[in-house]
Amino acid sequence: MMRRRDFLKSSAIAGSGLLLAACAPQAVAPPGVSQSSAPTPAAVKPAALTGTVSYWHTFTSQSEMDGLAKVTKAFKDKYPNVTVNSENVPNSDFMAKFTLAVQGGGKPETTMISSVRLPDMAAMGGLIDLTSRVATWDQRQYLPDERFKDATINGKIYGVPSFAFVNWMYYRADWFKEAGLTPPKTFDEFQNAAIKLTDPSKNRFGFGMRGAGGGEGALIEVIRSFGSPIVDEKGQPAMDRQKATDALRWFSELFTKHKAVPPSVTNDSFQQIMTGFTTGQTAMLWHHTGSLIDVSTALGADSGKFGTLPRPAGPAAHIGDVSYSYNGMSDPKNADADWAWLDHWAQPDTQITFLESTGYFPSSTKVVEDARVQKNPYYAAAIETLKFGGPAPAFAGSSNWGLTVVLPNFQRVLLGEIKPEEAIENMMKGLDKAVKG
Amino acid sequence: MIRSRHQTQRLYDVLAYGVLLGAFTFAVFPILWTALTSLKANADIVTADIQYLPLRPTFQNYATLWAQAGFPTMFLNSAIVTALTVLVCLAVGISGAYSLSRYRFRARAQLLLFYLVIRMFPAVLLLLPIFIALRVLGLYDTHIGLTLAYTAFLTPVSIWILKGFFDTIPPELEDAARIDGCTRAGAILRVVLPLARPGVAATAVLIAISAWNEFLFALMLTTSQGIRTWPVGLQLMVGEYQLPWGLLTAGGVISIAPILLFFALVQRALVRGLTLGAVKG
């Protein structure tokens, strides 16, 4: 028979065990401090490298996994004695898992890094300074400085660009031909085409506007296209009230006045606008190169039904955001092999292989000049965008400002609850608060 | 007057059935829609006009999903972890619940409250200590480690549920068994557990459902493909720019199947257990 005292004793022992385990000391670097710098590269022959490389990534789709498998196989062919152990982490849970690994141990040797997450990952001591390796890297000449911008903090480089998402637009080439319209190059031409291609009786709309999650990004690009910056070079609020108001009015009137946008606009996020375009409900779609495989699969790559274009030029500026995905080192136990893996991603053949599998655009200028890219008509728009495009404006809290201030106010304008003037006023106040705290 | 009463009664009946039908449709439609979508070809899923029934029914989504690397293993992993979790939770839960039901000791009420409070913490708060504990014990990325993690937050629930059932069984029955020569353990095995079988079945089903569908711990406490569970596999199919509805719905149907099977096996005991537990304790 279990006695009361025995029961209590057992409970106390079990509780203490958990508490001790929870309080076990772990080496965690203070915020903003990397635990160590990656060793400077040494000339190591491929066959001499041995061991394993762990790699965390957020690839999930079949095309991404196929691309990763090909990239990994090519690496294995080159470095037969090194094995890459890839772990895919759902994109939405990546930061939770990475933070847990930094705090509790178990960081990967190498990891994929999105540009918006890099500052946080570096600040928690989860990334290694790669500046010295990059400085002597033979691929550096094909990666201009601006491609390292989002991966550089206080002069230290924490990631090397592996591929890019180039903002562009898709359009229904067959509908344009049918209506006798030329693909738009300016905002005026874009608006005109959107209106003319709208026919509610056929359930056709000129533009698949993203008015739900993610829609703030397109609006911010339009605001900048009208000549209003978001922040200045010092990262201080710099929005121009009049220009920003004009931009919001022009953009929202595509729905509120011209009815050239599906009525579900405020509920339309990525999946909805993509479905609308691929099922023949919308004539134009703003997204980036990452969705090319999806659109090609749905409409047929050689069907002549769709085409790609750079985003149209605004009245004051031609804006097309380009964001890079990076690879970095987190816990390099096998530094030379880890670096070889990062270097492999920047090699021309690797980038072409990945591009062909996923449509994700190369980061290397050498690859962009490759005939396999230059001759593909769909990529012409991305190549053109790289000439004038660049990173989106970023500051600490920019993502939150976009999601919690810009998007709700944009939606209220679309719903007719407030006027563009009031929405911009709210956005400017929110920006001020986000930047200055 | 009588006729009018009949008419009123009929109106109430119609209304009641209407409400029931509405609730039934609300509950069943998503499952039915998932099953129907899983039988459609990809081209028939995303269309301009909604197609309710599959025009060209196919099991291709199931075949493709099952052929994808790792999915049979993930399914097996889920089954192993769920079975282990049910066993451990029941073993610990039965002893704990029995002790709390039969013994009166200092801070008993506080201990029960403590078990309840643990459930009030978001699971994510328990994650870091459990993560560190498993790493220290060398159980990170193992079936046993995941089972222990699930046990940590499912055992309090099972204790609460089981205690309610044990409270309904008169202690005199055990006393009689002990007078007849049973030990305390013998009385539990031969008298209490057979009487509490509905409660044990209900608890087992609730634990199994929780363990089978759990995602956060399964993702955070595992790292290799050989240990990952089914919900993690399904979530990993959701890409940032791609959403394979056909495969996802096929995966959803497959994930429901084992729970339905388990439910069918313990249904009789479960229904009795649920009604008992609902009013006792």
CATH architecture of the largest domain in chain A: 3-Layer(aba) Sandwich
| Oligomerization | heterodimer
Q: Structural class given helices, strands, pairing of chain A? A: alpha/beta
Q: What is the radius of gyration of chain A? A: 25 Å
- How would a crystallographer describe the biggest sheet of chain A? 9 strands, mixed
By CATH's scheme, which homologous superfamily of the largest domain in chain A applies?
Answer: Periplasmic binding protein-like II
CATH topology descriptor of the largest domain in chain B: MetI-like fold
Describe the overall structure.
The complex is a heterodimer of chains A (437) and B (281). With 437 residues, chain A is an alpha/beta fold. Chain A is built from 18 helices and eleven strands. Chain A has helices at 4-22, 62-78, 94-104, 118-123, 131-135, 173-179, 187-196, 215-225, 241-256, 270-278, 292-299, 335-346, 348-358, 365-368, 371-374, 380-388, 398-414, 420-436; strands at residues 51-57, 82-88, 110-114, 152-153, 156-157, 160-172, 205-207, 282-288, 306-309, 322-329, 361-362. In chain A, strands 1, 2, 3, 6, 7, 8, 9, 10 and 11 form a nine-stranded mixed sheet that branches. In chain A, strands 4-5 form a two-stranded antiparallel ribbon. In chain A, helix 9 crosses helix 18 (420-436). The radius of gyration of chain A is 25 Å and the shape is globular. The termini of chain A are far apart. The model of chain A is unreliable at 1-42 (pLDDT under 50). Chain B is globular. By secondary structure, chain B is an all-alpha fold. Chain B has two domains: 2-38; 70-279, Orthogonal Bundle (MetI-like fold).
